[in-house]
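Q: Hi! Curious about what SWIM-type domain-containing protein looks like structurally. Here's the sequence.
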Amino acid sequence: MVRGKLILICQHGGEFETKDDGSMSYAGGEAHALDISPETGFDDLKYKLAEKCNLELKSLAIKYFLPGNRRTLITLSNEKDLKRMCDFHKDSVTADVFLTGKAGFVPVNHGMPAKRKKKATAARPATSKVAPSAGGLKDVTISIATPSDSVAGVNAALRSPSRAAKRTASRNIVDGLFEVSVADATDTDTIDMSASPADTVKKRRRTASWKRAANGLTIVTVDDNLEETEKTTPRKKVARKFNPIVVANNGDHQLGPVDVSVEKQVESWKNGITEGQDFRSVAEFRDALQKYAIAHRFGYKLRKNDTNRANAVCAVEGCPWRIHASWVPSASVFRVKMLHEPHTCGGESWKIATPAKNWLVNVIKDRLRDSPHHKPKEIATGLLRDFGLELNYAQVWRGIEDARQQLQGSYKDAYNQLPWYCEKIEKTNPGSFTKLVIGDDKRFQRLFLSFNAMIRGFQSGCRPLLFLEAIPLKSKYHEILLTATALDGDDGIFPVAFAVVDDENEDSWHWFLEQLRSAVSTSRSLTFVSDRDKGLMKHVLEIFENAHHGYSIYYLMDSFIQNLKGPFFGEGRASLPGCFLAAAKAVRPGGFRMYTEQIKRVSSSAYDWIMQNEPEYWANAFFKGEHFNHITLNIAEAYANWIEEARDLPIIPKVEVIRCKIMELMELRRTESSNWTMKLTPSKQEKLQEECVKARGLKVLFSSDTLFEVHDSSINVVDIVKQHCSCAMWKPTGLPCHHAIAVFNCTGRSVYDYCSKYYTAESFRIAFAESINPASTIAHPCGNEEDSEEDEDQIMPPSISRPVAAQQPKKIRRNKSQGIIRRSVCCTRCKGVGHNKVSCKVSL
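A: Let's find out. The predicted structure is below.
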């Protein structure tokens, strides 16, 4: 950074416009300047941005462009992202950041970083007066004490000339009170911003609220979602939102937000309801009654429950506890008119108590925000520990489903947005290929996606090699993700296309390959690699002309190990996987036969398995397509990790997670490769250096200008025109062998001129040159429910089917008469079966 500081140009309120070349520009809105230093923390920065641009802190999202790249927006969401942004702009004086979020900044002291806490001035006695309204409201004097004192007396007197005047005065008083309390005079707590989610899982943000108790109005704390609850009240929304408030002296409460543990929170609910207490709506009363019942450990039934009145009795017949509350039009409040306190049921009502659905869903929502993958058993255990509620699995599971639907949207409704989503992808990423298939029963069947950046990158910078994989999406409808993945010049994954299908079968794979052919039109001879057990060879050779198909060495190795059966001789079972891999990588038939003979000497059944699994489709010595079996890792693992983060999301957010992961992958590789100085990618440069070391001291004889004889432990012939060496290592690997390098050293040729173009740093950059443009909006503006029900094009989720039986190995049951089947033991001394060399009694 220049002089240790970076000036951020903070823009918000405008819109992004995508140009023909894929770059984006930002038009409209406002801009503010803010300087940061290397010591600036992310939470502090986010708070400053929200404050400066008047945006809600929770909903604030921050994005920026990399220097010289106006195509891909990078998300700024944590300390690591902030450090990376500063590193990227270390040679710049300014950097543009783009903000989105809901309007309306609300100061929240407990959410502020420690730095901002230190800047707060010391609390001191203060007085604030609210001017009287037109209705004749008298002055209200508010005194705020120092931290050592209790909250000072707050005296007010109120006349009631009219209801409208009361509402106006109420708003003025509340605004004045909150404005004074922002100083947080009595708050001395410091929030640990480095605490982990596990450390803060029991903490809840609290907001100051005002309620009328029996002895006057007091300040209590209510949940942040109270406003959401109020929205469900259909009657007199405006009239009930603000009520005339008179604040009485009460030293038991503090002004401003506080943090409390769950135990203290429940303890505070015990005094949440008293006779004569007023609430702003029936919804607020129900919420308080639910918490009151949990705190006192009893269950109740609502006899009357509408917007005008609510009557509740104890859940046990004969217990006298009851409560009655109703709407008071003259005061525009919902008032507790009768509360008969004592219980005679002896706690029996608590045994049959069931929490209100809305309350339970809100509690579960808070826990899912902290840990999105909470299991029902974990949440049930937490509810029992924190609130004493003992719920069964089904109750908690239904609560999780409702909570996730509120947080993420409906699983079912998401399928209706797929046509719009495909149209949005093609609009924001011209040249991309999408295909959506809906069945005759209006149920979702298949969705294919291939972005233009992926298509062009594969065609221009990657070898003609594609790995076909299927990964379960782990959703409630059991969809499957089909993928076609290439390798970049550094042998990293390069996603080309993917599809979500309702089931994995021959029809879905055939359809996927047809869409892939339409998206990736190329004259090159492609090599496809897949699991042998899937049987995709006939579909590949039928759809793609001049294509080759090979079997994935990863799945072959796994199957080989699972099928190993004794007896084992010689070096034993442990040597077989290494020999199998060496046989697959051998470039000459003689080398393949040598390793398979070693396998045969150890286990004849393992040798038979190798011969039966068609070595011509996976062994280097016989395979005619592109070299691939040096890749022994699971290509599908990256997709599986991405899906794990989004397994609970509906289909469109889940696809969006995959798209964003690919977008970030491409941007990261593009950024990393921009700093490379060598001609080859790092992994290929390393392998070439190893061959250069081997080439030292080799004797080279000239046969012609293009044909050479190289002597080491054997004689090898090198033809530099055909790029061939008799050791057979040059062509399969794409890199010159040490015999060829010895020739180049003698003739003064550059070794890089004879390396595969796909391994050069230039081809790597070409592969990642294009960018995936983000969709400007994810949520589709849906109409009302009646319109959606009448819509003829409504898309239903796929029918839920059980996983394929072949993917679930059946347990073999044996009768007692069969006994236990034991592993056969082979003697390495006499080669006999049934004993080992220690117990061998055969005389040799």
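A: A fun detail: Residues 87 and 266 are 46 Å apart (CA to CA).
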